[in-house]
Amino acid sequence: MAEVASHSYPHRHLLGIEGLAPSEIFTLLDLSESYVEQSRRDDKKVAVLKGRTVINVFFETSTRTRTSFELAGKRLGADVINISPDISAIKKGETLLDTALTLNAMRPDLLVVRHPQSGAVHLLAEKVGGAVINAGDGWHEHPTQALLDALTIRRRLGGLSGLTVAICGDIMHSRVARSNIHLFNTVGTRVRVVAPPTLLPAEMDRFGVEVFHEMQAGLDGVDIVMMLRLQTERMQGSFVPSVREYFRFFGLDARKLAAARPDALVMHPGPMNRGVEIDSDVADDIHRSLIQEQVEMGVAVRMACLDLLTRKLQSNHAETA
Amino acid sequence: MTKRTTLVNARLLDPASRLDMPGGILIEDGRITAIGPSVTAGGVQVDAAVIDCGGACAAPGLVDMRVQLGEPGGEHKETIDSGSLAAAAGGVTAVVALPNTSPIIDDVHVVEFIARRAREVRRVKVFAYGALTRGLKGEQLTEIGTLKNAGALAFTDGLRAVSSARVMRRALSYAQTFDALIVQHPEEPELARDGVMTEGEIATRLGLPGIPAAAEAMMIDRDLRLVALTGGRYHAAHVTTAEGVALIRRAKREGWHVTCDTAPHYFALNETSIGEYRTFGKVSPPLRTEADRRAVVDALADGTIDAVASDHDPQDQESKRLPFGDAEPGIVGLESLLPLCLELYHNGHMPLLDVLEKLTSAPADLLGLPLGRLAPGRAGDVVVFDPDSPTRILVDAFRSKSKNSPFDRRPVQGRVLRTIVDGRTVFEAG
Fold first, then answer.
1. Cα–Cα distances in angstroms (integers) from residue A55 to residues A17, A69, A102, A206, A306, in the given order
2. How far is A151 from chain B (nearest CA, A)?
3. Which ranges in B329-420 belong to alpha helices (H)?
4. According to the model, what pLDDT value does residue A5 have?
5. Chain B 260-299, CB below 8 Å of chain A: which residues?
6. What is the pLDDT of residues A178-191, one digit of tens each?
7. Are B323 and A123 within 8 A, CB to CB?
8. How confident is the model at residue A233 (pLDDT cuts 50, 70, 90)?
9. How far apart are CA B29 and CA B6, in angstroms?
10. Does the ipTM surpass 0.90?
11. Cis omega before residue B72 (within 30°)?
12. Within a 13 Å sphere around the CA of A179, how many CA atoms are in the beta-carbon half?
């Protein structure tokens, strides 16, 4: 396992990418690398988090991210509990902070939290004793997704700086897009966003990105095409007129991908809407698509985050002792 | 026997008459009977209670034209009793409550209930708006004439805009029969729907749905056209944007009968006060950009904005300790109203008398209240304050039941020393 000094990530929580220094991001990515190798062995378990309790609190349904965090925790030897909205007291009207205080009383070491409201994870983190990982809050941030995307790119292309990434689709409602924009800006990757104006938030040009409304121009010469999921409720006339029209103009197919570099790679945070934002031919092209690799890297990145934040807990204990 | 109170040794400030001179005030049986240096010239009558102001300012008691007092229906957040205490501590001698109570003030009985509760509490003067439409639904007009006779001062749907142009046109037309003022929450509701802060870079960064500044301008623009069509009396509540004040400035120049107000948070704060999801910075309309804030200050100084109201909106912890999107909007404002307005004077934007006018005679005149003046024959409502002493806003010391203020620990200048209603002292600084 990689040796990492705890001062190289000086935060108690991982609430977002915004504000992280390049060195902190690289610390997390380097540690993730070691967990990629470990996850490919027959014996995938280590005892790094033995005796530790990780609670996954998902106020919004998720299979992929929750499973990824659960596996990550278990591979590190932690006791992992999942709490999802249908079994939580939220439905009975308990407030987020009451839930936080109740969970906190059970003395978890790490809380992995997803919530449909932007900022909800910050609010919860202020009230608990352990470390908190933001597993996605509203439209705001999804830091482990950005880290796993960066790890995937770095492993395939050997680095991050100097590359150009086009993030395409529903930028407005996407925490994945925001976290990725912050991360790429921090490590020197050039970012373009490509979307119809209805799916772009206000003043996007202030975020150090180039804005395009047309796929051909937006993908011209890029190294990576990152597609975003378009939620069903936004497809039928509210943000775009129809699925058919969206796919025609903004869905990624072989013809549009041809504008990018010949060896350009395709990414998607999943779950995909085939025939909406991405064509199956592109999604399943083993030479171009990194989509399965992203899922694998997800587990390794989450192991690294759990590991690093736990080390911080230890050093905090040591300081107070 | 005549009850007499004499204030002596004061700096008298009356915005309506532009009076600024040393002197005293004689209040007999609740009414001012004399003001000026001559009040004490022949000595004070032996039976008069004498209040030595020690050189502090004495101005008309503040008239706060928009507050929410929680009663009836929201007594866990504020009551007429606690709200009156807060008002008195803020130098406010008259408040006008929005109709968004439960039950809603769309019926004479609720107007009478509030008047009765205010009489029982007997601290500051409590008036009420009538709902403009039944149930604040924006569809059917309330009984404007009957409600006005029962004491409703003006008509509004409170924090909801009257969305339908047809309903607004009829309201502006019909209300003329009774010379009733129509007060609008100027925000195009469809454009603002789901929004929780002003649209722009910060909302994008925080991942929060935005309300564009244009939502305000669109509604004001539409309403101004309806004013032109009907000749009705129109007032835009809490204007917040450069475009919004520009529209009203132009309409005033053209001689239309339109007025507007704003609240201290729109000239004392901007959108950055939200920081990392601070729900105390969530208000409706939302805090705007720095350019908008400056435009509001300019509009106060040039007279485009007629009045300042506290927008007192008490919210308990359960309504604010939530994710930003789920939290209720609102700032508790009665006890910080005067010091925040005095910033306009201390920062050199406006003379002291002009600042006070926005808080006294201007709102009183808008609502047809014979208040807000230091003159013989007027009500003995006076605020005695020190405009200069440096202090901090301390929310824990607020008398209001709710403490939702983004101004906690803000350094300010100015302190209310005494509040007098009809000659009775209802607040005295400790």
1. 22, 10, 12, 37, 11
2. 24
3. 337-346, 352-359, 361-366
4. 59
5. 276-277
6. 999 999 999 999 99
7. yes
8. confident
9. 12
10. yes
11. yes
12. 28
**Which residue in A97, A178, A206 is closest to B321 by CB distance?**
A97
Question: A92 pLDDT band (50/70/90 cuts)?
Answer: low
- Kindly state the percentage of chain A with pLDDT values over 90: 84
Ordered alpha helix ranges (H), B231-360 = 242-253, 264-268, 290-301, 317-320, 337-346, 352-359
pLDDT computed for residue A4 by the predictor: 61
For residue A31, give every residue at least 6 positions away whose Cβ sits within 8 Å of its Cβ, in sequence order, or none: A2, A4, A304, A307, A308
Are A118 and B205 inside 8 Å of each other by CB? no
**How far A201 CA lies from chain B's nearest CA (Å)?**
6
Residues 264-283 of A with CB under 8 A from B: none
Whether the per-residue pLDDT at A2 is higher than 60: the answer is: no
Residues forming beta bridges with residue A113, ordered by sequence position: A57, A134
A163 in B contact zone (CB under 8 Å) = no
Average pLDDT of A117-127? Answer: 95
Look up residue B324 and give its DSSP letter. Answer: T
Candidate from A120, A139, A204 with C-beta closest to B323: A120
Closest chain A residue to B201, measured at CA:
A203
C-alpha distances in angstroms, A29 versus A32, A78, B355? 5, 21, 58
User: Which residues of B are catalytic, by number?
Assistant: 311
* Nearest-angstrom CA–CA distance, B53 and A120: 50
Q: Do the Cβ atoms of A220 and A227 come closer than 8 Å? A: no
Suggest the residue from A94, A101, A118 to mutate for an interface test with chain B (most B CBs closer than 10 A): A118
- Do the Cβ atoms of A117 and B210 come within 8 Å? no
The mean pLDDT values, 10 residues at a time, for chain B of 430 residues are 92 98 96 90 74 97 97 96 98 98 96 96 97 97 97 97 98 97 98 97 98 98 97 97 98 95 98 97 98 98 98 96 96 98 98 98 98 98 97 97 98 98 96
- What's residue B48's pLDDT? 76
Residues 6 or more apart in contact with residue B292 via CB below 8 angstroms: B198, B213, B240, B241, B242, B266, B270
Q: Is A272 exposed, middle or buried (0-12, 13-18, 19+ CB in 10 A)?
A: middle
Q: Decide the pairing of beta strands A110-115 and A131-137.
A: parallel
Compute the count of residue pairs across chains A and B with CB atoms less than 8 Å apart: 69
Query: Which of B200, B206, B323 lies nearest to residue A96, judging by beta carbons?
Result: B323
Nearest chain A CA: its distance from B204 CA (Å): 6
Residue by residue, what is the 3-state secondary structure of chain A? CCCCCHHHCCCCCECCCCCCCHHHHHHHHHHHHHHHHHHCCCCCCCCCCCCCEEEEEECCCCCHHHHHHHHHHHHCCCEEEEECCCCCHHHHCCCHHHHHHHHHHCCCCEEEEEECCCCHHHHHHCCCCCEEEEEEECCCECHHHHHHHHHHHHHHHCCCCCCEEEEECCCCCCHHHHHHHHHHHHHCCEEEEECCHHHCCCCHHHHCCEEECCHHHHHCCCCEEEECCCCHHHCCCCCCCCHHHHHHHHCECHHHHCCCCCCCEEECCCCCCECCCECHHHHCCCCCECHHHHHHHHHHHHHHHHHHHHHHHHHHHHHHC
Closest CA–CA distance from residue B73 to any residue of chain A (Å): 21
Mutation pick from B202, B316, B326, B328 vs chain A, by most beta carbons of A within 10 Å, is: B326
Helix (H) or strand (E) holding B27: strand B19-28
